[in-house]
Amino acid sequence: MDCGATMSATPAIRTLLLCDLIASTQLVERLGRPPSEIEYAYLSCYNARPTRAEPLVHLARWHRMRSEWGLAFLFARAAAAIPRPADRLFLEEAVYAWRALDEVAISAWYAGFKDEGRAAAQRLLRENAFPPSDRPRIEANLKFYE
Hints:
Blueprint: H1 11-30, H2 35-48, H3 54-65, H4 69-80, H5 93-111, H6 114-127, H7 135-145
């Protein structure tokens, strides 16, 4: 996926292109393409719009599902550090509200970053921005850190 054209477009066009790239990348993932192709596609999405955390959260989830804990943590941590952008067009609100932190809380345990994982899980529960149906899972994850 070549994202070079997105860099010279207006912010709104770049955001629309990012959404399209993410959707295309998710299709590449669902089609079971080779891992290198999937990872490259998500990284290309991020490179096209580095002020957006969505591609990194999707990449963290993908690595977590493959039990690649170090990579999942790396991308989740990077995503969690990206503030909610000023351009809110097609913003995946959950990514900024709780999903990035959730990926940190899960992957940190297995990657050996237990202090960061505990802090992420505690912050998730304190901020309570996730759907109520996720509370039991997040509380159970925090117990691993106690």
